[in-house]
Amino acid sequence: MPLMQGQNDTYIAGGKTTDDWRTFREQLDHQGGRDLWQRAFEDYFLERLTLRYLEPIRILQENGTFQGEGFSIVAIQCTLIEFLESTVQGTQYRYPHRGERHGEFEYSSSREVFVNFLCNREPFMRHFDESLAQSFYEGVRCGLLHEAQTKNGWKIWARDTNRRRVVDGQHLIVFRDDFQDALITFVKWYKTALLSDTKLQHAFIRKFDSLCA
């Protein structure tokens, strides 16, 4: 039987809807605790990530022919980066109309969010400085999302079999499978941190409130 939803209800994580989140949010507000935050991570964050990002990437990896699917994989990874960082910060993107300013927890520049993730989140911070992160944003993220190709000399390879790097900054290569492993490592860190870090918890609530607005 297909899933049903109300007229003003939207799926945000698998079968979980905006109404489900609002009900669950009240439990987080009044009870909190590690068990509830474990559920928040698994039922909302990880479920959304798995179905919308991680599983599609896995399917492309396992059924690829090395004839171009790397562009799709890295394009998905680039959209995932912005979601991960904006969740950690508890912010949402809003396109500003003329004369408008974004609010305290809004942003209008993806560049800043993207670069902040690469330069400050493990394990990516081991591979990127600000200059390389800016180059990656312009040549890979913007190139793929705007023109369906990398720009400024950037290339996509499957894996760095010898050194297991996510990028080769000297030759401007992104290793998309190693990059994916690094994203999974970050998600595992986030799971552990979310259970006890109240700053991350408040940011999580803001992010999912914005998804349900």
Write the layout of secondary structure elements.
Elements: E1 11-13, E2 16-17, H1 18-30, H2 34-62, H3 69-89, E3 92-93, E4 106-107, H4 110-120, H5 130-147, E5 155-157, E6 167-168, E7 173-175, H6 176-194, H7 198-211
Parallel strand pairs: 3-4, 5-7
Antiparallel strand pairs: 1-2, 6-7
Helix pairs in contact: 1-2, 1-7, 2-3, 2-6, 3-4, 3-5, 3-6, 3-7, 4-5
Protein traits:
213 residues; mainly alpha; two-stranded antiparallel ribbon; single chain; three-stranded mixed β-sheet
Radius of gyration, CA atoms, in whole angstroms: 18 Å
**Total number of distinct structural domains:** 1
Biggest sheet details: 3 strands, mixed
Order of helices and strands: EEHHHEEHHEEEHH
Strand order across the largest sheet = 5-7-6
Q: Could you report the average pLDDT, rounded to the nearest whole number?
A: 93
Shape: globular
Figure out the total of helices.
7
Return the structural class. mainly alpha
Proportion in β-strands = 5-15%
Which residues sit in consecutive blocks of at least 5 with pLDDT less than 50?
1-7
**Helix share bin:** 55-70%
Number of strands: 7
Distance N to C terminus:
28 Å
